[in-house]
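Priority: medium. Attachment 1 of 2:
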């Protein structure tokens, strides 16, 4: 298996909207200007349609960025695009929280919604 290939499996509950949330605290890539490492925590959340992402392939895919130089904005959107291409989810959000660089913390949030999909209303529970 190519380390950057995202594998999928059938959604076990395709008739229901439910959310998968994952935290990947060990994301690294390289600064395209200096070549120094950039570190981030990625947060993925998605509502699957027909497919779910297999976790080991996701880990290997994320590791494939370690030796690549890219701006934070570009890499976050690339990850979103690759996940949308592999999963065709109802909804997906990628949040990349980069560690401090030059005194600045950077957080990039990129989202995709399938045409015609809208989130169900939030449930309010009693206090």
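Attachment 2 of 2:
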């Amino acid at each position: 298996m190519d380390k950057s290939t995202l594998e999928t499996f059938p959604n076990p509950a395709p008739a229901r909207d439910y959310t998968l949330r994952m935290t990947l605290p060990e994301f690294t890539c390289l600064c395209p200007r200096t070549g120094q490492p950039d570190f981030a925590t990625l947060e993925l959340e998605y509502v699957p349609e027909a497919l779910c992402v297999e976790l080991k392939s996701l880990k290997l895919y994320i590791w494939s960025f370690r030796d690549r130089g890219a701006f934070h904005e570009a890499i976050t959107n690339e990850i979103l695009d690759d996940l949308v291409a592999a999963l065709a989810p109802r909804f997906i959000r990628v949040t990349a929280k980069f560690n401090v660089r030059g005194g600045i913390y950077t957080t990039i949030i990129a989202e995709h919604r399938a045409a015609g999909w809208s989130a169900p209303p939030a449930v309010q529970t009693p206090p």
